[in-house]
Amino acid sequence: GNSVTQMEGPVTLSEEAFLTINCTYTATGYPSLFWYVQYPGEGLQLLLKATKADDKGSNKGFEATYRKETTSFHLEKGSVQVSDSAVYFCALSGESNTGKLIFGQGTTLQVKP
Amino acid sequence: DSGVTQTPKHLITATGQRVTLRCSPRSGDLSVYWYQQSLDQGLQFLIQYYNGEERAKGNILERFSAQQFPDLHSELNLSSLELGDSALYFCASSNHPGQEVPLHFGNGTRLTVT
């Protein structure tokens, strides 16, 4: 079945460092891919998405490219801030046109000043 | 603030009991989604409603049921509770016809079964 695997955390970086959080997936067909962010004490927020191969999703300085050949959707940011400290979830759409998302386990990012 | 309101924030109850979790979606959103987040299972999709109709179903237990009312709020009913049902239950909403994914999540209801 469909699944998502994220790199294990926590990831600890200094402010202004480069961020990569790895995400790979297993899926039949051509799912859409998503990154969500969960700040402490809050619900998830959609960060970015890509709906087909080679699409690049971007938002708030974060980027991720849908790589069909490597079944990956790695999240990157060139310069992280303390305010980026959160849990990041990679997800794929389990069924088209439904909210049936399959989430990875989440990666905790801690950014130190 | 996502605009999605979940009540109560915390719920402590005993095994065998029944509880109801409530969700008010963001204004104008027609889709409501329920997710369960636990340490061992992670985030699991339970069920989705669109404008009062069931749209998609995940691995929702038979002891669990949900509905969406005409005013678009939704309730998740959990019965015959077990210790393993302890989790954070999220509601989310969206309004993107044709591409329905949860955009706005509430802060969750933390259920503790003792």
Largest sheet of chain B: 7 strands, mixed
* Number of strand elements of chain A: 12
Order of helices and strands of chain B: EEEEEEEEEEE
Q: Number of DSSP strands of chain B?
A: 11
Q: Structural class of the helices, strands and pairings of chain B?
A: mainly beta
Helix amount of chain A: under 10%
DSSP helix count of chain A?
A: 0
The poorly predicted ranges of chain B are none
* Proportion in β-strands of chain B: over 45%
Rounded to an integer in angstroms, the radius of gyration calculated over CA atoms of chain B is 13 Å
Overall pLDDT score of chain A: 92
Characterise this structure.
The complex is a heterodimer of chains A (113) and B (114). Helices cover 0% and strands 50% of the residues of chain A. Chain A has no helices and twelve strands. In chain A, a hairpin with a 7-residue loop joins strand 10 (86-93) and strand 11. The mean pLDDT of chain A is 92. Chain B has 114 residues and is mainly beta. Chain B is built from no helices and eleven strands. In chain B, the strands form two sheets. In chain B, strands 2, 4, 5, 6, 9, 10 and 11 form a seven-stranded mixed sheet that branches. In chain B, strands 1-3-8-7 form a four-stranded antiparallel sheet, with no helix packed on it. The chains are: A mainly beta (113), B mainly beta (114). The A-B interface holds A 32, 34, 41-46, 49, 51, 89, 93-95, 97-106 and B 2, 4, 31, 33, 42-43, 45, 48, 55-56, 58, 90, 92, 94, 98-108.
